[in-house]
Amino acid sequence: MIQFHHTTLPNGLTLLAEADSDAHTAALGFFVRTGARDESPHVMGVSHYLEHMMFKGTARRSADDVNREFDELGANYNAFTSHEQTVYYAQVLPEFLASAADLLGDMLRPALREEDFTLEKNVILEEIGMYDDRPEWRLQDTLLETYFNGHPLGHRVLGTHQTVGDLTAAQMRDYFSQRYSPDNIIVAAAGQVDFDALVSQLTGLTAAWPPTDARREGGDPRPAAVQQRLTDDRVTRHYLAMLAPAPSAQDPQRYAAKVLADMLGDSDGSRLYWNLVDPGLAEEADFSFMPQDGSGAWFAFAACTPGRADAVEAKLLETLDQAASGDVPLEEDEVTRAKNKLATGATLQGERPLGRMMRLGSQWMYLDRYLPLEEDLEALMAVTRHDLRSLLAAYPFQPRTIVRLGRGEGGAA
Amino acid sequence: MIQFHHTTLPNGLTLLAEADSDAHTAALGFFVRTGARDESPHVMGVSHYLEHMMFKGTARRSADDVNREFDELGANYNAFTSHEQTVYYAQVLPEFLASAADLLGDMLRPALREEDFTLEKNVILEEIGMYDDRPEWRLQDTLLETYFNGHPLGHRVLGTHQTVGDLTAAQMRDYFSQRYSPDNIIVAAAGQVDFDALVSQLTGLTAAWPPTDARREGGDPRPAAVQQRLTDDRVTRHYLAMLAPAPSAQDPQRYAAKVLADMLGDSDGSRLYWNLVDPGLAEEADFSFMPQDGSGAWFAFAACTPGRADAVEAKLLETLDQAASGDVPLEEDEVTRAKNKLATGATLQGERPLGRMMRLGSQWMYLDRYLPLEEDLEALMAVTRHDLRSLLAAYPFQPRTIVRLGRGEGGAA
User: CA–CA distance from B226 to each of A239, B144, B245 (Å)?
Assistant: First the structure.
């Protein structure tokens, strides 16, 4: 039996749980509503760099202590940074939940020692270097930058050699104090959880955290419609990626958008799969829906041998355009297939405390309210062909930005 | 409440389930006790190639039917081939379990049509080509080949351009009839499962499958102790990998081996982590236990900048040797940490029908009996320092084969 709990502490910290007395583990996550889109351009990468610094110790713990304590708890733990959130989490056996909460909570007030900052900078710069070594990954950075056209959603999560190289510990401390305010953080738990105990523990732990009324700036993106070609002689394949506007994470049309993306672009069977991958034209062809805070995007991607670059791009765009125009009508059975796949995926996610916790924290971040899994599934299963046609009329894969990556003329295979 | 079920059909097919009436999904897998180690050298890669062919249709289904039906069920499905097993599985909502069983069961009697065989050969050859593009992946193939010294455990799962290029459909059919015998297959289910219904369905579906009394040949490996260096100017880092003998998947010492591998080589905190990764000497340093059928191996891996190659190798070997000799004694708290981590991992795996099903099928394949998760956890938690010392005396990381990969002299950074 899953029981939802919610409270907000006086300092603004939101606490959520889906407690399940039958679960054998517990998952706990701290969701900070901040990421690459919340950075000034000259400190690009600070969110991700700061995430690394959180593991380097606090006033009462050294970096070794943090690592060793997670180990002692046998915890499965990690953190990640995206354009819109920075998340720290752990999965543990229930008897270790309170210790994990103490450790994660303490970590979120990092010491940010100058010498650790300097050492970690090299780690980040090496990570950026590894990205440079993978031209097909860099394609996506370029696409985001071009499409978002000056809006901070086009920032690189890792930052650049320049911005990370120039960053000072003082700038990081400023960013931290503004963004890691308790009213900008959601704590979500799931599984074998005693919510009251968690609330009283975190009330004590975060009592001195000052709220700053952190907000997200930057306004709405004004996406570009640009076509671009990158060359790199290290790649053996041709790559193609596209972005276009789609509904936001708050938009009721997001359910229809998920169904449409699955129908058109799921890698296991979809229009792109049947038109491009199954006949062997492309090795990969995906289309997905990227909901974001206040806006959203369609994302398409294909990889093929260089000789088929033009044919693949033409077929991919034709597949999307024929869906938008209604020239290839939406069939009832393809809608049903997509809904079944999405329902299976959501049910599988809901089976684990980790999946529950991730869903709970992310959803609250965007919606500021609780949406039970059952309600989510109902809304998904209620999507009709009519809804999909309205969606396509509002978001017809235009304006679109396309970036291609292949070998230069001299290096062509 | 989890309920174990087991039966063997007259044709030798083993059926297993961990039924859980509270689960919201079901997972089903067909485990075939065959893989690269069961291939003659001249048909190396046939197991993996055959796995692909299983998705190309049967007497009553075309390749498109197979794909479309999985889609209609909203199934999360896949297959994989290793040295010792070939596994086909699906996760579905409970109402689709019978359809998934029909589809997977039918797939395991593939049509193996000549034209599909020819088309798929190109897909496999491209996959081998992609491997050739990743020198650090090829390092492992070379290591296995060298260490296993002519024994089929050194086969490449994908095969080579030569063996796959030369393979005929007739050879594949031969391999199929010998190895995909019902007495060489285990069907495992977990989650929301009606076992009696599954048994009667599979009894009908597999009634005509002829048992062949398939066995595993090849004897025990006689590992080599070789040191080798590969050069490739496409890599920017230095890589190092090592194999040495360890307990088998059936050996009672396997629990101690898991604890030891975690203590020495877990990437989140272990002796190698603290000696190599934390101080920034290596970017990656792992040590793991690879249990196999009748034998087993220790596997170590490290990646670093080329200038640190010698220092990293020396430190890695020193860390292992000092554990084996007792020069750096095993501490109670590091043993406890390792056991806690392994217990968390096993409990997390047991939380999902997919994890339960995978555990059930693989374990039966090696042990020919049921081992409840609780019993497994007890055996793990019972490991003592004394057990670890006995293990180290029996498997002291010798004889060892080491393969290194870096740039050639001319291309060194």
Answer: 41, 11, 13
DSSP state of B112: -
Q: Report the amino acid identity of residue A204.
A: G
Q: What 3-state DSSP class applies to A330?
A: coil
Task: Band the pLDDT of A412: cuts 50, 70, 90.
Answer: very low
Short-list B126, B118, B122, B58, CA closest to B88? B58
Give the residue carrying structure tokens 């199954």: A278
Tell if the CB–CB gap between B76 and A348 is shorter than 8 Å.
yes
Under an 8 A CB cutoff, do A67 and B236 touch? no
Yes or no, beta carbons of B348 and A68 under 8 Å apart: no
Q: Is residue A411 pLDDT above 80, yes or no?
A: no
- For the cut 70, the answer to whether the pLDDT of residue B38 exceeds it is yes
In which residue are the tokens 């049309």 written? A253
Contact status, residue A253 vs residue A293, Cβ threshold 8 Å: no
B273 DSSP assignment: I
Q: What residues are paired with A262 via a beta bridge?
A: none
B93–A337 C-beta distance less than 8 A: no
pLDDT in tens, B52-80: 999 999 999 999 899 889 988 989 999 99
Q: What Cα–Cα distance (Å) separates residue A385 from each residue in A266, A300, B9? A: 18, 22, 46
With cut-offs at 50, 70 and 90, classify the pLDDT of residue B310. Answer: very high
pLDDT band at B409 (very low <50, low <70, confident <90, very high): low
- Tell me what ipTM this predicted complex has: 0.73
| Whether A336 contacts A305, CB under 8 Å | no
Cβ B93–A354 below 8 Å, yes or no?
A: no
* Closest by CA position to A88, among listed A72, A109, A74, A68: A109
User: How many alpha carbons fall within 13 Å on the CB side of residue B221?
Assistant: 29
- Whether the upstream peptide bond of residue B252 has omega within 30° of 0, thus cis, is no
Contacts of A344 in chain B (CB under 8 A): 25, 74-76, 91-93
Task: Write down the pLDDT at residue B236.
Answer: 82
Residue range A177-199, pLDDT digits in tens = 999 999 999 999 999 999 999 99
Handedness of CA A195, A201, A202, A204 (dihedral sign): positive
- Phi and psi angles of residue B13, each rounded to the nearest 5 degrees, phi first: -65, 130
Q: Which of B253, B258, B270 is nearest to B390 (CA)?
A: B253
What's the CA gap between B81 and B137, in Å, rounded? 16
Question: Which residue in B351, B357, B374 has the most chain A C-beta atoms within 10 A of its own C-beta, making it the best mutation to test that interface?
Answer: B351
Average pLDDT over residues B111-135: 89
Distance CA B90, CA B74 (A): 10
Task: Round to whole Å and give the CA distance between B321 and B290.
Answer: 19
Integer-rounded Cα Rg, in Å, for chain A is 23
| CB of B382 less than 8 A from some CB of A | no
Rounded CA Rg of chain B:
23
Question: Tell me, what amino acid is at B152?
Answer: P
Give the tokens for residue B300: 């170590």
| Interacting residues of A130 by C-beta distance below 8 A, sequence separation 6+ | none
Dihedral over Cα of A187, A188, A191, A192: its sign: positive
The DSSP symbol for A210 reads P
CB-based contact A339:A330 (threshold 8 Å)? no
Spatial distance between the Cα atoms of A244 and A223, rounded to a whole number of angstroms: 8
Nearest CA to A252 out of A129, A375, A156 is that of A375
Segment 39-68 of chain A within 8 Å of chain B by CB? 64, 67-68
pTM of the model: 0.85
Shortest Cα–Cα distance, A38 to chain B (Å): 30
pLDDT at residue B356 in the model: 96
Contacts with A, B 331-360, CB within 8 Å: 333, 336-337, 339-345, 347-348, 350-354
Q: How many residues does chain A have?
A: 413
